[in-house]
Amino acid sequence: MTVIAAARPAGRSAARDPLLDNAKFLAIVLVVSGHLVEDLRDVPAAHALYFFVYLFHMPLFIVVSGYLSRNFTFSPGKARKLISGLAVPYVIFEVAYSLPRYFLYGKLQISLLDPYYLTWFLMSLFLWRLSTPVWQQLRHPLVIAVGLCLLSGTSALPDELSMNRTFGLLPFYVLGLMLTPEHLDLLRGRRARIAGGAVLAAALAAAFAVHRLVPTEWIRWRHSNHQIGVDDLTGTLIRLALLAAGALLVAAFLAVAPSRRTWFTGLGAATMYAYLLHGFVVKVAERFHDVLVDPLGVTVMAVSGVGLAALLCTSPVRRAFRWAVEPDISWAFTRLRRPGTREPAAPVQQ
């Protein structure tokens, strides 16, 4: 299991697309580095970089998740992978992340319905993937997804099931479902690479210009319009702008990502390990805030994020933590039973 589970794009070879694995690795580097500098945002440059990265790093993972989920059905094999690949790791890491909070802060609180810290993505992806067959039957799924996103901002949704992020970021998942290999081919050319680089550079410059003017909660997708302090009309316009900016930056990032195999292509197939494990290092680093909160500390943390992301995607780490990230729970499943009978069906190929 990676942050974005692999699937076979329709009409293409079963071989993995290096573009997607390269983009995933580069994106997980941004995630890890972003979390390492998150607690250092008193440094203006760190705040600006954090704002820039959060505009598109999770939308990127979600778009590619949708793209690779296009063939998801309620078939027995895929339903079982949904449980073993998302539901079980969610429970494991929801408990695991609660333990450091207890030892560091003396607070023990476990709620399987209210995701803590990084586990929200597993919860939301589980719900998005369950909804995939529904979106594939609609005539205008992206319009409906955007509508749900905007409506969700007008209500103070509960934290359970990561409702705010699940609805707020839903359009990116549906966008991924609508993409085809031909769409990705449009991003592989030289002109697309130049345009993508220009877009990312312009967005970075804009982030440095406006990062202090935009509340950070907008780019976290955790609260309603009123909770952030704006009326619904203003909040709806801001959400539309964030959706458009996120989609544009995702396309730009995919355009500049290498489309050929590189030294880190293989690491891109294991980004779930880096995503779920790096949080423990971040929690420890937070204890050294006073020492690191300066330009040098920000630089050290950002560069360390590159090495940490790469390390957590390597084979030794994968072997050590496969039990938690990719648990084998085939023992928990029975042979499938035919509806209306007690006779087991033939075993399902996992």
Short description:
With 350 residues, this protein is mostly helical.
Between the first and last Cα atoms, what is the distance in angstroms? 13 Å
**Percent range for β-strand residues:** under 5%
Assign an overall shape. globular
Question: Which blocks of ≥5 consecutive residues have pLDDT under 50?
Answer: 1-13, 346-350
The radius of gyration computed from the alpha-carbon positions, rounded to a whole number of angstroms, is 20 Å
- Give the helix proportion (percent range): 55-70%
DSSP summary, beta strand count: 0
Number of H- or I-type helical stretches: 16
Major beta sheet summary: none
What's the mean pLDDT score? 88
Helix-strand string: HHHHHHHHHHHHHHHH
Structural class: mainly alpha
Features:
350 residues; mainly alpha; 16 helices; 63% helix; 0% strand; disordered N terminus
Please characterize this protein's 3D structure.
- The protein is mostly helical and 350 residues long.
- It is 63% helix and 0% strand.
- It has helices at residues 18-38, 44-54, 57-67, 76-105, 120-135, 141-152, 163-168, 170-178, 181-185, 190-210, 225-228, 232-256, 271-285, 289-292, 295-312, 315-325.
- The chain starts with 17 loop residues before the first helix and ends in a 25-residue tail after the last helix.
- Residues 1-13 and 346-350 have low confidence and may be disordered.
